[in-house]
Amino acid sequence: VFPSLAKAQASVANEVYQQLGQPSVFLFCPTEYCSSLCTPSPSRSCYLLTIGQELLPGIGVIWTGPKVVSQELSATLLEEVESVLQRRPIIWDNLYANDYDCRRVFLGPYTGRAPGLMPRLHGLLLNPNCELQANFIPIHTLGSWFRSELGNCARPDCAGMETVAALGDSHDPQEGSYSPQKALELALCDWVAEIHQQALEPGG
């Protein structure tokens, strides 16, 4: 019936979306959901080009970055993906996911995401550790990153343009910029307070 997998997927997704009354949040995860799965690259992928052309504009498309678990996200890559999909992507961030190796737990701060990404995103979802309590620092530091991004976007020089800054930790961050180390320290303080509070509760 369909000339390609992408045409089939887009047709089914569009029909379901319309049958549900075109909800404000409707997410589609493509078969090629990161750069390493694209043939030969995101910008030259026939599959992604078709998805971008065929999917109704109200449908959000999930993207994990250069890899399934991406250590870094850049504005350049997001621009390329937005151009192909004809919409800003929703990042499904697997930075802390440990379902593929439950012997590991990821407790570090949210890092490796370039400043100025917010204007290029339609949304961001954080895929957590399977262990509930292990996600305190990831979620707390994600909140710090988000507040920093909102502050950057509120500045007159933002206007959708990337703030020039290096990826990674900064020992002398500019005011309003995100410091993973400072975010980690804040998260640890709040986590210790939370643990003490739980210990004081009956049965703690």
Structural features, described:
- The protein is α/β, with parallel strands linked by helices.
- It has one domain (5-154, 179-200): Glycosidases (TIM Barrel), CATH 3.20.20.80.
- Helix content is 37%, strand content 7%.
- It has helices at residues 5-19, 46-54, 75-85, 136-154, 180-200; strands at 27-28, 60-63, 90-93, 123-126.
- A 4-stranded parallel sheet has the order 1-2-3-4, with no helix packed on it.
- Helix 1 runs parallel beside helix 2 (46-54) and helix 4 crosses helix 5.
- Mean pLDDT is 89; it is low at 159-175.
- One of its GO terms (biological process) is glycoprotein metabolic process.
- Estimate percent helicity: 25-40%
Q: Let me know the number of strands.
A: 4
Count, helices: 5
Work out the radius of gyration.
19 Å
Count of domain modules:
1
Strand content: 5-15%
GO molecular function: beta-N-acetylglucosaminidase activity
GO biological process, one term: glycoprotein metabolic process
Protein name: OGA GlcNAcase
InterPro entries: GH, Glycosyl_Hydrolase_84, O-GlcNAcase_cat
Summary, kept brief:
With about 200 residues, the chain is an alpha/beta fold.
List the SSEs and their pairings:
Layout lengths: L4 H15 L7 E2 L17 H9 L5 E4 L11 H11 L4 E4 L29 E4 L9 H19 L25 H21 L4
Parallel strand pairs: 1-2, 2-3, 3-4
Helix pairs in contact: 1-2, 4-5
Question: What labels would you give this structure?
Answer:
204 residues, TIM Barrel, 7% strand, elongated
